[in-house]
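Notes from the 1:1 (GR / supervisor)

We went over the backlog. Supervisor wanted to see one worked example end to end before approving the batch request, so GR pasted a single chain during the call. The sequence is below; no edits were made to it. Supervisor asked that the structure be written out right there so they could see what the output format looks like.
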Amino acid sequence: MRRSGNEGFRMQTEMKKKLKKTSVVLMGALSLATCFPTTGVKAANKQTLRWSEPAEMQTLDPSLVQDQVSSDVIANSNEGLYRLGKNSKVENALATSTKVSDGGLKYTFTLRKDAKWSNSDPVTAQDFVYSWRRTVNPKTASAYAYLFEGVKNASDIAANKKSYKTLGVKAVGKHKLVVTLDKKVSYFKLLLGFTVFYPQNQHAVEKYGKKYGTASKYMVYNGPFKMTGWSGSNLSWKLVKNPTYWDKKDVKLQEMTFQVTKSTNTSYNIYQSGKLDQTYLDATQARELKDKPDFVSYKQARTNYLEFNQTKKVLQNTKVRQALSYAVDRKQLVNKVLGNGSLTVTGIVSKGLTQFNGKDFSVLQDTKTGANYNLAKAKKLWQEGLKEVGVSKVSLNLLGDDDGVSKNVTEYLQSQLEQHLKGLTVTVNNVPKKTRIAKAESGDFDLVLSGWAADYSDPVSFLDMFTTDASYNNGKWSNKEYDQLIADAKGKDTTDKTARMNDLVKASRLLNNNQGVAPLYQLAQASLVKTNVKGVVYNTAGVQFNWKDAYLK
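Structure output shown during the call:
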């Protein structure tokens, strides 16, 4: 969830330019599952799972969610048509059956009749109609409204050419939902497991108004759990079993407690004291504990990258941007600084996301430029770039989050860049994630450590971020050839797999060669999870954690 710039609108309207960016990002088809079977196993008497988080909650509003922590909480306290199981398998949730007709342009969903909201209202097809219309309404300014591209009239709604009420979704009675598409979307079912496609209770939205989703008490829930104890800014909360959930008999956990601990040393100490069942690890801890039976490395379809504010004159120079990228030793970064299983990268698209003609896309996109360490080239290009700009000294601020991992990465980047590039001064500014996002959106940065996680297993989920008018293109990089390649991949070449993939390969290579951004590493998160924790499903992309079937043995 970043996310974002995933498959979606090209953000050509003013509304789209106002849509927001996140580091997080949200759903995908390619996944690595950490899942333990539940069949025939007796659960422990006290079913309380205690989880740590590295960052704060941002919102419970499905229309406005952008970060991974919020996305995971929403996905477990609410539910859509489908739920993502092991290996991102699409499983029926509120939908009991799906009929696809009209050459893939019409979807008819039959909804279960026993689903209820926590306020006792029944969950109906109209809840989906209301939710989807609310999300695509330009006044809502949803960062993920563009994911509705392909649904009838969504593009025109985003361009303010049609009313949000004309979106191709309608309720036929209480338990039949009909969705009409403008064009075939091969991954449409996968999208429907994403939180932005969940239903919303109109009564609750209207009752709470601007407070909706800002605290646990200003929300209603239809999922396995309800959220309690979140005021909107505090660093702890609970998910408790939802007594109105249609499948409550299969939910074994009575509650989950969450504690935000930005320091891995702190969370590790709490874990060691027996007060947490899970903790994230830093590089030093990961190296020391990697052989322990409770060690887990959660690999993600997520690329972290250095974004340049190209409204700044010096950063408009391609050679300057290339020098900044060449000066970073990515192997040292992932092995010594991170040490958590993170991977080096060949471009913006993560490894293992998708293949074409038997080759991973990450191999196809590799240009040997853009994501490589070459100190000689860095120094040469730096001096040439400064000469072209007409300066001999440069001062840049580097923006990042204030968690331990982000601090380590930004400090490493500062050291590398200042050490290798003569005349460069880098000032690091680590701030809370919400502040970092706001600063990036407003252009209040020179360099920013950003990240994007794929929403589904297609390269365009990364590449669409950097089209000229994309809302997540905070660096304002612009290339007409690149824009056309992405437009072709989403338009005239949509049904031609070879032509489409060639468009995307060319686009990724162009982004590399022009240094639109500097890809740094593919994220993995080293963790400890108590061996008695079973049934947790983890997916590398999108909604990552599914706790519905979790239990303590």
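Supervisor's comment: The domain at 83-114+124-199 is CATH 3.90.76.10 (Dipeptide-binding Protein; domain 1).
Batch request approved.
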